[in-house]
Structure formats: structure tokens, C-alpha cells
Amino acid sequence: MKILLISNMYPSKDFPSYGVFVKNTEQILLDNGVSVDKAVMTKRTGKLGKLVGYASHYLKIIASGLTKKYDYLYVHYASHNALPLLILKKLNKRVKIVTNVHGSDVVPEVPSQEKFQPRVKELLHRSHKIITPSPYYKELVQEKYGVTTPIYIFPSGGVNFKLFYSFSTKEEAYKELNLNPKQRYIGCVSRIDVGKGWEFYLQAIAQLEAESLTDYKYIYVGSGKDEPKFKQMVQELNLADKIIHFPLLPQSSLAYVYNVIDAFVFPTIRKGESLGLVGLEAMACGAPVIGSRIGGLKDYIIDGQNGLFFEPGQAGELKEKLRLFMESSAEQKENMSSQAVKTAKLYSVDEISQQLPTIFFNEV
């Protein structure tokens, strides 16, 4: 079987985390004997760079679809790749498209993304198969677009347990991150962008610390358009001594972060949070997830067992859940940690690796 992998997000040396799950799905296909060509974009900066990049990317998609024979065209991110695929489908009706939809594909995060919705709908109706990361997202796609196209679930490449696991000793992790091994940490890993909930994380910390100083410090890993606002809020809330901010890190470094934190906070308010793979990666390292009761998080967080829920956007409730976790006994925390690892194993690459090729090999 031969597949053309299409995505406007793919890792590069400068941006190793950008679309890394796309590369992970590629590797799963390769490991299962599937031949994969690529029409992918790495991260571009500046308007001109993006314009040239997308023009070249679109031309490659159309040219590859017309001049080469593939069993399937497998696309990640319907919104930004629909246009060339719809053109290609008109020029060559025999091409079979498998569309893997994520996040803002279905639930636009900002008004400017709404313009893609008519093309997304058309692409999904013209696709041979659809892949979503979670049961929650599958229902969302069915309800919004009324598609009759078969929809399959595949959790975004899965959790790589060769990378994400609970270290037997944490010394290396503290050393790599230049952190104090005697200090206790809570962590969050996310882009600093609209809908990610970073402001509620900071507000909850400020409220908690104002009521009673804790012996915790709080890690935030990420960069984004709202980073200036993030830094300003840290200062306004007098959290400079409590917040440790790292920029975007490669996955190998994220494993260190997950191993030094007692719990992972996932404060998203996005209805388009199609799975939340970072939460599962944190769980694999033994960190329970204190997360918003929203999106794909509802499919794997079990309140009180492997994590805690709070209502999206409610900083006060997040504060209380942080307090509840901190005041839990060592035995309760250890039980939550063990349950978190068990949950993550259900999403491990080894556990799910056959699901993706099966989707392609099973004809409908």
C-alpha cells in the first residue's frame, strides 16, 4: 500500500514539536509496511514566508495527486489543506482521501478560522474515510456536518512509552531542567494562545497562594501569541517567584518536566480539544491530570482516580482542586499516579499501533 501524507504541520530542527504527532502517525504506518510519501509543511514565520510556503505546498499536493498513483491521500488538518484537495478531487475523481480532523478543524478558535468551515464540510463529505482522535470528537463531527462517511477513532499517534515513562530516579530530570530536587512542582504544558486557559492557571495559583502560601512552585512550558500577556499577568499577580516558564521544548525534554511534577494542570476551554495528548503523556510519567471537564479530556480523566476535574474557565474551582490534591495523603497521590499510568497505557503506541493501518487496509 502506498499513501501520500499531507499536512501543513510537520516537525523541523528549529520547531521539533510542531505537528510531531503527524510524524508519529507516519512512523506507525512505516512500521506496518506502508509506503509513505509526504507533502508537508514545516513551520514558517512572516507573512511572505507563509504565503510562499502554502503556495508551494498546495501545488505539490495537486501535482502529486495527478502524476502519481496512491491508494490513499491521508491529510492532517482539513481546514488548511481542503482547498487543494477539493481542486484535485475535481480533476481526478478517483483519488481516495482519508481526512484526519483535529481541534480547530471543527471548532474554530478565532473568527478568522470560520472562513475555512465550508471547505472543511465539503472535504469531509468527499472523503473516503474520516479519522478523529476521540469518541467525543467523532460525535462532534457527526452532529455538526451530518456526514455519512465512515468515521474511525485513532488517538493522535498514541503515547510513546519509550520516551514517556516514570523514571526510576528523578535526579537526571531535575539536573536537565536546572531545578531544585527538594522543591515540589505542579506543571502545565500548552501553547500560550487563546482558548488554552493559561490565564486561569495563573489566576488559580494567585488565589491559592494569597490564601495560604504553599510549598509548591509552578512550571509552565510553552510559547505563543499571548506570551506578552502571560508575562504581564505573572507580574501583576506577583507570581514571579512562583512561576518557572520554559519555552516550547522537544518531546525528550517534556519527559523530564512530567517526571518532576506531582500533577499536571490542563486548563483548556476549547470545545475543539479533540484529545489532549499532552495529558496522556503526563499520565504515562505518573502525573495525575487536573483538567477542564471538556472535549477529549472527558474520555480519559476519571475524577478522583487518575485526576481531578474542574469546570472550564473557573479559576476558583481550579484553585480548590489544586488545594484538594496538595492536601491529599501520600498514599492517595501514589494511587492516583498509578491509575494515571494505567490509563496512559491504554493509549500507548504498542496498544494502538494496529488501529491506524487497519483503517487503511479495511475497505468500505
TrEMBL record:
EC number, as in UniProt: 2.4.-.-
The entry's keywords: Glycosyltransferase, Transferase
A UniProt-annotated Pfam family: Glyco_transf_4
PANTHER family the UniProt entry points to: SULFOQUINOVOSYL TRANSFERASE SQD2
Native source species: Priestia flexa
Transferase in keyword set: yes
This protein's name: Glycosyltransferase
A molecular function (GO) term: glycosyltransferase activity
Domain Glycosyltransferase subfamily 4-like N-terminal residue range list: 49-157
Residue ranges of domain Glycosyl transferase family in the record: 170-341
Highest taxon of the lineage: Bacteria
